[in-house]
Structures are given as C-alpha cells and as structure tokens.
Amino acid sequence: MRSDKVKKGVERAPHRSLLKASGYSQEEISRPFIGVVNSHNEIVPGHVHLDQIVDAVKNGVRASGGTPLEFPTIAICDGIAMNHRGMLYSLPSRELIADTIEAMTLAHGFDALVMVPNCDKVIPGMLIAAARLNIPALLVSGGPMLAGKWKGQRRDLKDVFEAVGQAKVGEIDEEELKEIESHSCPGCGSCAGMFTANTMNCLTEVLGMGLPGNGSIPAVMAERKRLATRAGGRIMDLLEKDLKPRDIMQKEAFENAIAVDLALGGSTNSVLHLPAIAAEAEVDLDISRFDEIGREVPHLCNMSPGGSHYMEDIYYAGGVQAVIKRLTKLEVIDEETRTVSGQTLGEIADEAEVLDEDVIRSADNPYHEEGGLAILEGNIAPDGCVVKQSAVAEEMLTHSGPARVFESEEEAVEAMYEGEIEAGDVVVIKYEGPKGGPGMREMLGPTSVIAGIGLDKEVALITDGRFSGASRGASIGHISPEAMEGGPIAAVEEGDEIEINIPEREINLLVEDEELQSRLEQLETIEPKVKEGYLARYSRFVTSGDRGAVYEK
Ligand SMILES: CC(C)(O)[C@@H](O)C(=O)O
Ligand SMILES: [Mg+2]
C-alpha cells in the first residue's frame, strides 16, 4: 500500500505512535488510508452542509474496509467575493486547493482520495489534484441549491445581482430588493442556475470522476447522502483495481465533457477549467475544440441565466445521464470512456431515461442549433476568447460599436451607473486578466448592471478578465493574450470601432494594422497592481485564459 511508507515496519513505530495518539487503532492503521477532502466552511452556502456529506462518505469507506482520514481545504464563495478586490482570490484559489491536497496526500501517504467540493473553483482544484497525484480518486459534490421563488416567479442568485441594477435606476424600490434578496437563494447548495459550480459538478460525472447524479441530485435531498455513502464504497473498489484518474480523464473523456457542456449551456469558466485539468493530466486540449464540437452539438437545455430552468428540473428530467443519452444518439459521445462508477459512460447512458422533453430537448428540437459556447478570434484576440452564445440576445450576435475603455471593473460599473454608457457601445475592460488583475476577476457586476438597466440587447462587453456562470448578454471574455502580456486589447483606445460577429466567430478592432502595431510598440510598461503576498507570486507564474490560466510549467 502507498500508506506503508508511513506505517509499516520497525522504523515506522513513531509514525504509528502518532496515529494512535490521534485515536486510530492498530486495526484501522492496518487498513488502506483514504484521504477524505472536506471543503466545508460556514461561509459558502454550497459548503455549509458538507460535514453531513463527508460523514456519509466516511461511513461508506469504513463499511468497505478502509480507514477514512479527513482533512480540510478552502472554498471561496464567488458571489460574496464579487464586485470588489476579493474576487482577485477566486481563480487563484483553484491552485491553492490543488496544492493543499497534493501536500496533505503526499505528506501522509494516503492510498486514495474521496474529495467533497461544491462551488466554483473547488471542483477544478480537486480535479487538478486528482490528475496531478494520479492515485485512485473520485469526487462527490454537495449538490445544487433549489431555486427560490417570490411573487410566483422562480429566482436564483442571478436575479439578485440584476435587481441591484434595477434598484439603482429606480425600477424597483429598496423594499422589493430586500424581498428578492431574501427569497432567491433558499438554502444550502450551489446556486441553482447552470452557473460554474453546477457546470463543473455535472461535467465531473461526464469526465468519469463522479457517480451518476453527482451534478443534479439537489443538496437537500437524502439521495445526496446515499450517493456519498456509495462514493465511500466505490473508492475501495477503485483502489482494489488500481484505477487512477489518468486512466479515466483521457482525451475522449474531456471531449465528452465538452459536448455535454455545450448541450447544457454551461459556464464560460469551463473553458478555463477543462483545459487546466487536461494540462495536469497531460492531455492536450486546445480551446478550439470547444468550437469544433460546438458546431456538431446542439444546445438542449434552457438553463438560467439565459433560460428558465434550474438544476432541480434537470434532476427530475433524468439528470446529466439523460443529457448524455440524448447526445449518444448524435454519435458525439465516446461511449467507451471509463467512470468511477465501474460502468462506461455508454452503459450509464443506456440506463438513463429522459423524463421531461422540454427540460432536456432532443437534437431535432434544440433551443439552439449550435452548442452554448463559442470561441472567437480576431486582431483583438489572436489567441482566442469565449462567449456563452446561448445567453446572447439574437440581435447582439453581430454588433459593431465604439469602444468605451476601462482599466478596471469598478471604473466600468461607475460609468454605467452615471449613464455614460449608451446603446451601441462596446465596453472594454482591460488589465483584468490572470496577470493583470491579477486573478482574472469575474465581471458579473458589469454584466448584471447592463442586464439590470435593460441594455443587454444594445451593449456588448469584452474583457481579458472572465465572466460568472450567472453572466448573460454579449459578454466576451478570456481575451488572449491579456493586456498585461502586451496583447492587442491593451492598445484599444476610447472611440475605436469594434466589430463582433459571433456566428462567424470573429472579433476585430477596425484600426489599420500599422496603427495597431505602432500603438503596441508605444505601450508603456504597466506596474503590477499587487506587489506582495500570494497574488504577487501568482501573477508572476500564471498564463492567459486561452491556456486555462495555468501556471507556466
Ligand atoms: C457567483 C457564481 C454564480 O458562483 C458565479 O461566480 C459563477 O461563476 O457561476
Ligand atoms: Mg464563479
């Protein structure tokens, strides 16, 4: 066993002594050490209930002959971190989570891992750790939050962010805002729309690293606890067979995940996280694959923020399994990929049933002919950028307008509230990339103000930062190379004409090449915004969005 290095033989008497001091019997020490990664905390609604999930996992491990050894990792609530400097820590926390798990696992010689995430960066952080360590591992998430409801209308966190814009322009009063804030997020779980957390928890199933139901069983259902107990048992089987993450997360598994992501209308953050996880698994995954697959995979689920369905609807409609089943009919799924359930993805799809034709539509009646995400290129984004086209109004799929240039999210939002942004404008927020932010903030503030003040059908927003899964509208992010790396977005000036054509996958600055070149040559060097602490180190090693904002190797 891997754990023999900390517990076997005469020279490991001190180590056993310490394990006994922690309360483990000789019998428990002799069994496989299963690290149980608990991202519980009392701040993030997706994590406040995880102790119950972890207890169920540990019961499952014990019942199957293992010794569970629980340890914590961090979890940031992107919603609470949004719209201020706190959001600088969101994406960088993904690397901290992966590094924490690596350190604890190798320091203590765990034989296998069961990891319990739920919100945004915790899932990719754990999957990166699984790919890096490559010991038997699986994830079981905390599950989605139910949708809220008020005045007969179902709501989720997106509605609260957008209500801020409505209140600021006097469309609703403070009283109504308070009611919306109190009734849109009803309890524990990852916010109910197809935002980043639910996207990544669903894609964990498709990658093969979570059991069927991992992404869709609501957090408050007892079925979620039963799933966790089963996960605790499954890890012992994976250990027995020595089935490791890199045997599971192979190229075909990532392409299956991209196909389901596109059918679900998943978060643009999946375009950061899947390439980052693939890089750690030494699988070559270029973001252009999202576009190539997106041309063949229709958008089958009309999920919030662009649509009106929530995760519980997916659950009652048959789960992610039913979405996979739909896609097997299109032959865009490799059905032989393996999963931690012991079944292939095709076997899981065979057992699935679509229980609601409107929540999970068939390919001959999709919500959109193409997948939810599109990758654009042009002289502003030579290395690409991403837009959730399934959440863009028809009239904004092609748009030209004057650039309104800002160097931070705060400057842009202030201009919006001051009424300085007009119909037709293209808001440009630069120096918010992985290096420039640093930390590549999500721009849910600006996108929800644009939507909240009713400009989402007339104003586009482009940035080297990124967007929340709750963002909608013509919001184009991850522009690469970022401004801080001297990318052309750095040379965009107020009033420049910008042309966006999502169907043609183009985004261009209508400025002569010579002019653009000379502007780039005259760019003055921008001092890093953060000079010490974790973010200073992070910004020195991180790469642009097109590479998943991974560290330079
Ligand atoms: C706050 C949210 C909804 O979690 C957002 O950050 C996302 O990425 O989906
Ligand atoms: Mg987020």
From TrEMBL:
One of its GO terms (molecular function) is magnesium ion binding. It catalyses: (2R,3R)-2,3-dihydroxy-3-methylpentanoate = (S)-3-methyl-2-oxopentanoate + H2O; (2R)-2,3-dihydroxy-3-methylbutanoate = 3-methyl-2-oxobutanoate + H2O. It comes from the Bacteria. Keywords: 2Fe-2S, Amino-acid biosynthesis, Branched-chain amino acid biosynthesis, Iron, Iron-sulfur, Lyase, Magnesium, Metal-binding. Residues 31-347 form the Dihydroxy-acid/6-phosphogluconate dehydratase N-terminal domain. The active site is at S468. One of its GO terms (cellular component) is cytosol. Its cofactor is Mg(2+); [2Fe-2S] cluster. Mg(2+) binds at D78, D120, K121, E442. Homodimer. PANTHER family: D-XYLONATE DEHYDRATASE, D-XYLONATE DEHYDRATASE YAGF-RELATED. This is Dihydroxy-acid dehydratase. It comes from Halarsenatibacter silvermanii.
